[in-house]
Design a protein that fits this description.
Elements: E1 11-14, H1 18-29, E2 35-38, H2 47-50, H3 82-95, E3 102-103, E4 108-114, E5 117-122, E6 127-130, E7 132-135, E8 157-160, E9 174-178, H4 182-194, E10 197-201, E11 208-209, H5 218-226, H6 228-249, H7 254-271, H8 275-281, E12 293-294, H9 298-302, E13 307-310, E14 314-318, E15 321-324, E16 329-331, E17 334-337, E18 351-353, H10 360-364, E19 382-384, H11 397-416, E20 423-425, H12 427-441, H13 468-474, E21 483-485
Parallel strand pairs: 1-2, 1-7, 2-3, 4-18, 7-19, 8-17, 9-10, 9-17, 10-13, 11-12
Antiparallel strand pairs: 4-5, 5-6, 14-15, 15-16, 20-21
The structure holds NADP nicotinamide-adenine-dinucleotide phosphate.
NADP nicotinamide-adenine-dinucleotide phosphate (NAP) binds near residues 59 and 340.
């Protein structure tokens, strides 16, 4: 759009992770330079800065888990290790000169809307004014501690995987790991390599698919450096591959579900020799109901002589270890909590208030909702990146953030052209969107008889129940009839 006499917005981005940096880069490309990123910690990277547990990696192919505008010829493996991913984001931050606009160690305490402006106050007692706020705080960043009696009484080292204590040595120790989700499946094989004995406390088994973690030779990487168009092709190829398989499998496409179902069942059958152990590891719910774990090391590791899979429920934790429902004490030196995250907090506990002082907790009540996962009625000029219902079955969140960023830019450009001062979603549009989501959920596997972090308090999956292509199409242009502009 060619805009005459356009005005320039002040934008505050909350969070310097993958999404926050992306939004800043794209805003600048669009000629918007009055940008500040407020970051609560001392470095960029979000998830990849926080999660340093042994074995941390991305289970999305690395060449797909990159910004589309910054392919990376240097990935060492198909599924990149966490520190490589962190290094990639640091490279991007340097190359695109994002660092100078970040205020580190500055958590947003409050964010209030008044007279078409946002006022943000931070932990450093600073105040920022903004025309737009982009909340890029991520989804899984509030560690969930298990509510197990006696947890605080444990006398050994005890930490959550997202807060791994690297000062604790595991060598020859008795280590307990609670949880068997995506994180645990990556961490446990590494812990087993080092520790004396590892007790894995499994409440619910998981479906795992084994996609080998191919390493890339120096020759291959050199070729990619010379021919970056090959990397773009690889990005497109992986995107197509994941979309056509995993993403379709979970939204009710029968053929794709049958395929992934067979892959998971074969993996279990071929990998686990002992029928008793196999039975313990076999889930009783549909493949994909919980997030499908892409992993090639967990089944091997669990069969090592120093590994023990404990399926008796946990009764309590005592200073010496874990006591299971059968009364048995599992003596432990170290207890690792791989118990997941609170996925519905988003930017909270920040004190966020929209029009007429309405608080986000009042607005949401027990139901976290956003129109198009991005816009909240009564919270004008506020964009909730990767909001509720964005996770798209085993898809790259980078691709999702890129699509959302384009949508946000389109609205900001309209503001620049003075088409409005404030934009938010109408209540009716939000309600219609929710009905549309609910309708799509009927076909998905997330209601397939399991508990998972996908489900909210009412048992509704906070996921996108249609295809990736459909999401992209619907996000192409803001539908102004659904938006309230003033
Ligand atoms: P999660 O999938 O929520 O798994 C948490 C685990 O802890 C489950 O096994 C759960 O058992 C168990 N648990 C929780 N509370 C418990 C309790 N009180 N007693 C016993 N067990 C308890 O968490 P996560 O493994 O951290 O993964 C979360 C998400 O992070 C993934 O789904 C994925 O989206 C993302 N992730 C991605 C990657 C990647 O490579 N891209 C890697 C790691 C994580 P139940 O199943 O019985 O609830």
């Amino acid at each position: 759009m060619q805009v005459q006499n356009k005005r320039s917005p002040k934008v505050v981005i909350i969070g310097a992770g993958m999404t926050g940096m992306l939004v800043a880069i794209k805003l600048r490309e669009a000629g918007i330079h009055d940008i500040v990123i407020l970051e609560k910690k001392d470095n960029i990277g979000g998830t990849w800065r926080e999660n340093t547990y042994p074995g941390v990696a991305c289970d999305i192919p690395a060449h797909m888990y990159t910004y589309s505008f910054e392919p990376n010829p240097n990935w060492s493996h198909r599924f990149a290790h966490g520190d490589e991913i962190q290094a990639y984001f640091e490279h991007v931050a340097n190359k695109y000169k994002v660092l100078p606009i970040i205020r580190f160690n500055e958590a947003v305490i409050s964010c209030h809307f008044n007279d078409a402006k946002w006022t943000l106050k931070t932990s450093k007692d600073e105040t920022y004014m903004a025309d737009f706020v982009v909340s890029a705080t991520g989804i899984l960043h509030h560690p969930a501690m298990p509510n197990i009696p006696g947890l605080e009484s444990f006398k050994g080292a005890c930490f959550h995987t997202a807060e791994w204590d690297h000062s604790v040595t595991l060598k020859d120790k008795n280590v307990g790991v609670i949880g068997t989700g995506s994180t645990a499946a990556q961490a446990i094989p590494e812990v087993i390599k080092e520790a004396g004995k590892v007790s894995i406390f499994q409440r619910t088994p998981q479906w795992l698919v084994n996609l080998p973690n191919k390493g890339f030779s120096e020759k291959t990487k050199a070729r990619w450096r010379q021919k970056p168009q090959m990397l773009k092709r690889l990005h497109r190829w992986y995107t197509f591959g994941v979309e056509q398989t995993f993403s379709k499998a979970v939204i009710g496409k029968k053929f794709q579900h049958a395929l992934v179902n067979i892959l998971c069942r074969l993996n279990l059958w071929l990998s686990i020799k002992d029928p008793v152990l196999r039975a313990k590891l076999k889930p009783n719910y549909r493949v994909g109901c919980k997030r499908i774990i892409v992993n090639s090391t967990f089944y091997d590791a669990i069969q090592k002589p120093n590994a023990e899979l404990v399926t008796e429920g946990i009764q309590k934790i005592v200073p010496e270890g874990v006591i299971t429902q059968d009364g048995k004490l599992h003596p432990l030196d170290v207890l690792v909590l791989s118990t997941g995250f609170h996925p519905f907090n988003f930017m909270r506990p920040m004190d966020l208030r929209g029009k007429n002082g309405v608080k986000i907790d009042e607005r949401w009540g027990r139901k976290v909702q956003a129109y198009r996962s991005l816009l909240i009625p009564e919270f004008p000029n506020f964009f909730l990146m990767l909001g509720p219902n964005t996770p798209i079955g085993n898809f790259s969140v980078i691709a999702m953030s890129e699509v959302q960023t384009e949508y946000v830019l389109k609205l900001i450009k309209q503001w620049q052209a003075k088409e409005f001062d404030e934009v938010s979603a109408t209540q009716v549009a939000l309600e219609n969107f929710n009905v549309y989501l609910k309708d799509g959920m009927k076909n998905t596997v997330w209601l397939g008889g399991c508990q998972s972090w996908y489900l909210d308090e009412d048992g509704d999956p906070a996921m996108w129940p249609y295809s990736w292509k459909q999401w992209v199409k619907e996000m192409e242009e803001p539908n102004m009839r659904d938006l309230l502009t003033e």
